[in-house]
């Protein structure tokens, strides 16, 4: 069953549909007919005034495993449903992801209706968060995207070169004042660094509004500690990446033979173990109860976690988009959450 479905069935199809609807589990999401129904579903991204769909479409696959035509079809479907937040990074596919998203924004006339989030700091040409490289990275992303402004700039500290945070935020302040950046997010920041950033914001530096930390049912240790406490205390919007653990939590890959070769195959195979299969079985049971895809349950689990606002999910097909957006409309019961937690422990 689809939460956000488009189109209507024929007169001959309706009786069968009504009969099957009578057998639907009472906790299943209500299907809504009509394009763009997701446009009414928005949540605040921090305190900067941005309103986003509770699921950000990631562009990590664009230009890598997904060609331009397929990428644009995925973006079209997400927008058709009512999604409005797209995330990419200057390091995704060596910048090709940004090229594809920028072309789509331009040809579809979607720029003013899309919250554009970009992560910088890991591109080999401009690594780290030093002042010079940060400005160069932002300018390069703006050029590839063909836009004048990045709505949410995620500062990627994964390749930290030891640059003082004060210098990074001072440079970010200049970018904001110049109209090149709207608000700030953080990726790979420790709890201590977030506290330091808040102290600097009280002295007049720009405030970090969102954090991206890889987080899902299988990857919990790093976030479910000081990071979550700091995020809650500071009112940060958590937009976790790797929401489906490289696709494993979509339930599509259940044996090592199913996993593809290459980097993605290695990532998938690393989770095909006793714990991973146990989690998939728990997801299967909940998905069957609610009559939704496994991927939707994985997204619903994330949205049920404190401080999580909008998971970042990379899609590789239109069907995948249809599956993951259903997670926005799934409300897991306490019993279901407890069972999933036990499986992931």
From TrEMBL:
Domain NADP-dependent oxidoreductase: 54-342
Chain intervals for the UniProt region annotation (Disordered): 1-22
Domain of life where this protein originates: Bacteria
InterPro entries: AKR_Detox_Biosynth, NAD(P)_OxRdtase_dom_sf, NADP_OxRdtase_dom
One Pfam family hit: Aldo_ket_red
PANTHER family: NADH-SPECIFIC METHYLGLYOXAL REDUCTASE-RELATED, OXIDOREDUCTASE-RELATED
Stated name of the protein: Aldo/keto reductase
Native source organism of the sequence: Microbacterium resistens
């Amino acid at each position: 069953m689809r939460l956000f479905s488009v189109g209507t069935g024929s007169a001959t199809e309706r009786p069968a549909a009504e009969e099957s609807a009578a057998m639907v589990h009472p906790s299943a999401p209500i299907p809504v007919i009509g394009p763009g129904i997701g446009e009414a579903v928005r949540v605040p991204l921090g305190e900067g005034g941005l309103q986003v769909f509770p699921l950000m479409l990631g562009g990590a696959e664009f230009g890598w495993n997904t060609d331009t035509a397929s990428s644009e079809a995925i973006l079209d479907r997400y927008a058709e449903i009512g999604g409005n937040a797209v995330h990419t990074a200057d390091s995704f596919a060596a910048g090709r992801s940004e090229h594809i998203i920028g072309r789509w924004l331009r040809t579809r006339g979607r720029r003013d209706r899309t919250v554009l989030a970009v992560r910088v700091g890991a591109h080999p040409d401009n690594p780290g968060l030093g002042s010079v490289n940060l400005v160069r990275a932002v300018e390069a992303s703006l050029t590839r995207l063909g836009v004048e402004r990045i709505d949410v700039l995620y500062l990627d500290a994964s390749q930290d070169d030891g640059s003082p945070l004060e210098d990074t935020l001072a440079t970010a302040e200049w970018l904001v004042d110049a109209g090149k950046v709207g608000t700030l997010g953080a990726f790979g920041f420790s709890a201590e660094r977030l506290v330091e950033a808040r102290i600097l914001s009280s002295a007049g530096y720009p405030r970090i509004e969102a954090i991206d930390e890889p987080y899902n049912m299988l990857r919990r240790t790093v976030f479910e500690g000081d990071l979550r406490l700091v995020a809650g205390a500071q009112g940060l919007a958590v937009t976790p990446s790797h929401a489906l653990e490289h696709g494993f939590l979509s339930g599509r890959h259940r044996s090592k033979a199913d996993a593809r070769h290459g980097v993605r195959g290695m990532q998938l195979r690393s989770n095909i173990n006793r714990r991973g299969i146990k989690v998939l079985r728990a997801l299967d049971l909940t998905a069957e109860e609610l009559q939704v895809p496994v991927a939707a349950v994985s997204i619903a689990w994330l949205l049920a976690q404190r401080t999580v606002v909008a998971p970042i999910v990379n899609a590789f097909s239109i069907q995948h988009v249809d599956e993951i957006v259903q997670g926005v409309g799934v409300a897991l019961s306490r019993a279901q959450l407890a069972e999933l937690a036990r499986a992931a422990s």
